[in-house]
Every structure is written in C-alpha cells, then in structure tokens.
Specification:
Elements (H helix, E strand, L loop, with lengths): L19 H10 L2 H17 L3 H11 L3 E5 L5 E6 L2 H12 L4 H5 L6 H13 L6 H15 L4 H11 L10 E4 L9 H4 L3 E4 L10 E11 L5 E8 L6 H4 L3 E7 L10 E6 L10 E14 L5 H35 L3 E2 L2 E2 L4 H32 L5 H33 L10 H8 L9 H14 L2 H16 L7 H24 L5 H7 L1 H20 L3 H14 L9 H7 L4
Parallel strand pairs: 3-6, 4-6
Antiparallel strand pairs: 1-2, 4-5, 5-9, 6-7, 7-9, 8-9, 10-11
C-alpha cells in the first residue's frame, strides 16, 4: 500500500451462480426436469440483476419521483414524473415475468417457487419496484378468483402479461386518514351506485381520501369503500365495506376523478412514488359481493406479506454479498479481513440468519403454489395459514438487523450515501411495518392457533419430522438436547396461551404473550428447517455452536411456568 492506493470497491457477481444455498433449496423442492429449466432462467436473470438491472436500480434511486401539480398555463395535471430507470424496471418486470411466472403455471405447483426465486434475485436490484409488483400480484390473485368475466379479461390479463405495452401494475389503496391496520374501523371512503349501463365498465363512484398510496403511478388499484346502498336493499348494505376496482386514468389520459394532494416525505423507499389522494367521484367497479371487502383483503395480504418477506431476505443477501466481497479485498492489521476469525464469525452469523429466513420464505412459497394449483392437502393449508404471519414478522425483523450488521462489517465506506448501503437500511425499516406490524402478525398467529387449534400440533409434528428424520443418525447429543428443550418451550407456551383463554381476562393476557410466542415459534421453525436441509458437518457444528444464541432459551419475562402460576392456571 502506498499513499496513492485506493480501496478497491466491492462488486457482486451472478446472484444465482453465487448462491449455492438457494440452488439447494430449489433442488430439494422441485423435480429434476422442471428444476433444470428453471435454473437456466434464474442463471440468465441472476446475471441481469448484477448488470443492466442494477444500473436501472441505481438510476431510480438517484432520481426520486416528483409531482407536477400544474402545467405551465395553470391547468391541474397531477403528473408524477419518474426516472428512466424506474420506467425501465417496469419493462423488465413484464419481460421477465416477475408476476406472470406464478400465473402461467408452466411448472404447475412449482411455478410459485420459480417466481419466489426470481423475486428474491430481483429484490436487491429492484429499487423497490418489487412494491408495485407485490400489489400487482395480490390484485391478480383476487381477480383470478373473481366471477367477474370483464375483470378477468381486462385487468387480470394485463396484470399477468409479459407484453411490455400491455403490462399493468396495481395499487392497494387501503390506508386512510385514521391510518393503521384497522381498516374496518378506519375506512371513511364511500361509494355511490350509478345507473346500469351509464358507464362502459363502472358500477359506482367513490368519494374520500386515501392517505397513503404507494406506487401512485400505477394503472389500476383495488380499494375499499363503504356502501351507501345499492338501490335495492340499501338498509342492509349501507356502511358495509366492499372492494372496488379503479382505473387510474380515463381513456383520454386524464385522472379518473382522482386528485393527487401531495407526495409523501418518507424516511426510506423514496424512489417509490407514494402520495395522498382525494377521490372526487372516481369511477369504480365493485369486486365480489357487498360487504366482502375485508375477506378479499386477506387474499391480497397473504401474497403481499410473502413479497415483503422476499424483500427482507433479498436485502440480507445483497448486503451479505457486498460484505463478503469487501472482506476479500480489504487489508487491515496485517491481513485480509476475510482471514480474521472474528470477522468471519460475523459474516457467518449473518449468513445463518439469511439461511434460516430463506427456509421460511420458500416453504411458504411452496405451500402457496400447492394451494393455487389445487393440489394442497388440509395439512398444507393449515401450515400456510400459520406460517404466513410467522414468516412476515420474523424475516422483517431479522432482515433489518442483518443489513445494519452488514454496514458495520463493511465499515465507514458503507456509511457513505453513494455506497448504496444507507438506502438499503432506510428501505428495510419499512419491512416490519408494511402489510401489518409485528404486533399485528403476532395477533394473527394467535387467531390462527385459537380458531384452528390443530394447526399448531400439525406444525410441530411437521417440524420434528423434518429435523429428526433427514439425518437423525448424525445429530449430536448437544443438538438433540437443545432441540428437545425448545420443543418443550413451544409446547409449554402453547398450553399457556390455550389455558389463558379459559380464565378471567384471558384475551388480554393471551394477547400480551403473543409476540414472545411468535418469535419463539419462528426461531424453532428456522432451526428445524435449516437442520433438515443441512448436510455439511461444518455448518452443523456452527449451528450447534450458535444454537443457544439463535433464540433466547427463556425470553426475558417469558418464563411460561411462572406466567402460568401468576395467572392462576393450575
């Protein structure tokens, strides 16, 4: 090193060929013939996300969207100006089938796994374009299940096409001024029916304010509004929440009764256009039966929660890739930092979390594919129901922790804005909030195991089978002991939650334990899934070394036996 030497910056390579763990997950779940075809597609896309797609991402991140409210002559235009890179990501999304892959079902129930791997590769280079894609996928899921043939032949077809000129993205306008996840109580937007045949496709007009609408430059949205009465049975339908399809613009290019009040000034995700909107009689078409809006949201949210989880592991993977390459180039204290044991341990710790979270995500994708192709068993459906909130809450929290650790592993250079790392960290802060906070997910998990008590026992049986039968002969005594201890904790915790439902103030006390229980269960799922796929002795040893740090053996304040006695449950 001389006075003029500069630090060589880190680079990323083909994100498919550089990720043998992702390859091993797909080999485990997908038969050889489709797996070979899928691998070719992922190899091609893995190179793109490290080259031309990454350039589009950089351009979108450097050129944030702007709102042009008026033209030069004072006419209200409400035009959102996006970057060249952002628009190019739209075209890539269509060409590469980042939504279409899951609905073409070329590989039947394995198509959703193919899609998940592709979305994972895309996440780190997406500039948050995976947000509109998530809502597009959720909308497509709802419309595919609709009995409305017009919606299927227009909206659904455009949401799932690979044709760049025809490809639509969708919004998901649920949040209003009251904010939060309680859309049932917080929705003030209302609908007015219009005479049948008075509009080419609309059935209603909508009035209200949508306080937070991401991907505001989208082509359409699905949104909630209260019925003001359908003209035939208004007393029964009035006030009920229904779902509506809205096209953003009229055929002449003008906004469809929509006024863009302002762009949101956010901590992160600044490359993603997010605005506050006023609906001034926007033409809309009711989706499904009156009063089924919340039920249909659930269908959308299950899809977008999986996208959120993929975004989390994608961010983890990208920061880890940069940190590893940097470690191979950074010389300090007499040697490359990739050769320094403590630094290696930090990177290994990050990779362990990534591998654990990846197992969760791809298991949910596998189950979703089986449900979509109608080959799912009752066990599959029960597991999907319980694993979806677990996966969302855990990957979001761990994703944020890992990317922050990655910044520290790289050091001061990663604190510099144009390194790209600060943007990843800012964007990752939204992951525990989007599609339901950690508390919302924990309570959803609690609902799933109280309304369907067999789901937890099915999950535990499935996990133990995976952890014990894949390579049980090689399980060390220390790992068996740790595994058994955690099984005992999970069973004890579930018994407490069930018991608390039967005592005074049971709802309050059981809800108070929901978050601790969710993380305990999430970590147990991770350990069993990682254990079931791991074949290398080195990784087994490392996992066992870290096992007691992988979850708190007894979380602070969560001694379940003490809690049981405290609440008077014998």
């Amino acid at each position: 090193w001389g006075p003029d030497m500069l630090q060589e910056p880190p680079r990323i390579g083909n994100q498919w060929t550089d990720d043998p763990y992702l390859q091993s997950i797909l080999r485990r779940h997908i038969p050889k013939s489709p797996a070979t075809e899928i691998a070719r597609d992922l190899d091609h896309f893995g190179q793109r996300v490290a080259t031309d797609v990454l350039e589009m991402c950089d351009d979108a991140c450097m050129n944030e969207p702007q709102l042009q409210a008026y033209d030069a002559w004072g006419k209200r235009v409400d035009k959102i100006i996006t970057s060249k890179g952002w628009r190019a990501l739209h075209d890539v999304s269509a060409q590469e089938g980042l939504v279409a892959t899951a609905y073409e079902r070329t590989h039947k129930e394995f198509s959703r796994l193919h899609w998940a791997a592709k979305a994972y590769l895309f996440a780190g280079s997406s500039a948050l374009y995976n947000c509109p894609l998530a809502m597009t996928d959720g909308a497509a899921q709802v419309l595919e299940q609709s009995n409305d043939q017009w919606l299927k032949e227009t909206a659904f077809r455009n949401l799932t096409t690979r044709d760049v000129q025809k490809f639509w993205t969708s919004g998901q306008w649920m949040t209003e001024r009251a904010g939060g996840s309680d859309v049932s109580a917080g929705t003030e937007t209302y609908s007015e029916p219009i005479p049948e045949g008075s509009h080419p496709w609309a059935t209603h007009r909508l009035y209200g304010v949508k306080w937070f609408s991401s991907a505001t430059e989208c082509d359409m949205t699905l949104t909630l509004a209260r019925d003001s009465g359908d003209g035939t049975d208004s007393s029964q339908s009035k006030g009920k929440l229904s779902m509506f399809f809205v096209q953003m613009r009229s055929p002449d290019g003008s906004l469809n009764g929509i006024e863009i009040l302002r762009m949101k000034n956010k901590l992160g995700t600044r490359q993603l256009p997010t605005a506050e909107l006023k609906l001034n009689g926007a033409y809309a078409r009711k989706v499904g039966a009156t009063g089924t809006g919340i039920k249909q949201i659930t269908t959308m949210v299950n899809v977008t929660r999986l996208w959120n989880s993929i975004a989390a592991i994608g961010s983890m993977r990208r920061v880890l890739a940069i940190a590893r390459d940097f470690a191979a180039k950074r010389y300090a204290f007499g040697q490359m930092i990739a050769q320094q044991p403590l630094h290696v341990e930090v990177l290994a710790s990050m990779e362990t979390e990534l591998k654990a979270c990846s197992q969760l995500v791809f298991e949910v994708a596998r189950l979703m594919g089986r449900v979509e192709c109608k080959v799912a068993t009752d066990v599959d459906r029960a597991l999907l129901r319980i694993l979806t909130p677990i996966t969302k809450l855990y990957t979001a929290k761990q994703g944020l922790a890992v990317v922050i650790e990655g910044m520290e592993a790289i050091g001061g250079q990663a604190y510099i804005e144009d390194s790209g790392i600060p943007s990843i960290i800012r964007d990752s802060h939204v992951l525990p909030i989007w599609e339901g906070t950690t508390n919302v997910q924990s309570l959803d998990l609690l609902r799933s195991i109280t309304t369907q008590p067999s789901s937890l026992s099915l999950l535990l049986s499935n996990l133990l089978l995976r952890a014990q039968t894949s390579s049980s002969a090689n399980l060390s005594n220390s790992f068996k002991q740790t595994l058994n201890e955690v099984v005992g904790e999970v069973i004890e915790a579930s018994r407490v939650i069930e018991a608390l439902r039967t005592v005074n103030k049971s709802r309050q006390w059981s809800e108070a334990t929901a978050r601790m229980f969710a993380f305990l269960l999430a970590r147990f799922v991770c350990v069993c899934y990682v254990r079931s796929i791991s074949k290398k002795q080195l990784f087994q040893n490392f996992l066992e070394l870290r096992a007691r740090h992988f979850w708190p053996n007894t979380p602070p304040g969560a001694d379940w036996k003490v809690i049981w006695r405290l609440f008077g449950v014998d």
